[in-house]
Amino acid sequence: MARSPLDWSTLRGTQVASDLGVEVCLLLATNLDLSQRKARAVARIPFWWHTIDLGDEVTTPGHSSARSQRVRTDAIPRRLKGKTVLDVGCWDGFFSFWCERRGASVTPIDDFQHRDFVREKYGVELNGGEGFRVAARFLGSRLKIKKCDFVSLQRPFDIVLFLGVLYHQRHPLLALEHLARLTRECALVETHYSKSSGQPLLHFYPASSLNDDPTNFWGPTLSCIDLMLREVGFRAVSLVKTYRDNDDRAIFLARK
Ligand SMILES: C[S@@+](CC[C@H](N)C(=O)[O-])C[C@H]1O[C@@H](n2cnc3c(N)ncnc32)[C@H](O)[C@@H]1O
Fold first, then answer.
1. Rounded to whole angstroms, how far apart are CA atoms 126 and 119?
2. Reported pTM
3. What are 174-229's pLDDT values in tens digits?
4. Which site among 3, 13, 131, 207 is 20 to 30 Å from 166 CA-CA?
5. For residue 58, how far is its CA from the centre of ligand 1 (angstroms)?
């Protein structure tokens, strides 16, 4: 039977009201305390990549905007229940937590090479994984981040998220070959791309010439991404979307 909402006016002046009043005050105090604890834990992380709503009005101040994260989650296959998902380069884990909430069994990994970018561009030292662990704790997630390079993995996953990772690889075709080996159903590849040509070309960015990031190497054209994904064994490749963030970005869905 549905309960009707509490009508305070009928309780005013009664013992029940004063007991409930104490409980409500305690509840408010606990929520305030939790909110402060979350805010303090968030502030202790010197650099956040992802914007993550941790509840109680605390959101991580991510370099990556909520809008650009939404563009990417919109492209993730909707049927995740019971699927195994590998999140390559998960950083603070926004996409891992998103997939976990939808019933996937998620493996979040990162080799923490972003430490070089954060040190060079912002003069900040990260250990790697600290943001992920804080977010997991307050989101009630069971996920554990694993430090590893995805090329060291052997076991395949139903779905692989390869978001913002391709242009960091020194050997992009080899990296995509390994991505194909790790993918059972499909991979979502989100990347910077070069608008320079309709031809399948790779633009090389030496040193920190792309976004002041010494770990950025490549700007493939759209046809280059499409043809490389087919070359490494994906049977069906489709361009989901292009969009503008700090640079030109594209999202491809590659199916086995
Ligand atoms: C641009 S960030 C993207 C983070 C997140 N996937 C997103 O889209 O918001 C790239 C991440 O990939 C990680 N990464 C780069 N190469 C990797 C590799 N070979 N294996 C695992 N992680 C890698 C970096 O450390 C960094 O955390």
1. 8
2. 0.89
3. 999 999 999 999 999 999 999 999 999 999 999 888 888 888 999 999 999 999 99
4. 131
5. 25
Cα of 64 vs centre of ligand 1, distance in Å, is 13
β-bridge pairing 146-147 and 105-110: parallel
State the Cα–Cα distance between residues 68 and 219, nearest whole angstrom. Answer: 19
Identity of the amino acid at 48: W
Residues with CB under 6 Å of ligand 1 are: 49, 64, 88-89, 91, 109-114, 149-150, 163-165, 168
**Cα dihedral: 50, 252, 75, 151 (round 10):** -50
- Residue ranges in the chain modelled with pLDDT below 70: 1-32
CA 131, distance to chain mean position in Å, is 12
CA 24–ligand 1 middle distance (angstroms) = 44
The DSSP symbol for 152 reads G
Ligand 1: centre distance to CA 72 (Å)? 14
Q: What share of the chain is helix, strand, coil (3-state, %, to 5)?
A: 40, 20, 40
The total of other beta-carbon atoms located within 10 Å of residue 138's CB is: 18
For residue 151, the ligand 1 atom closest to its alpha carbon is 19
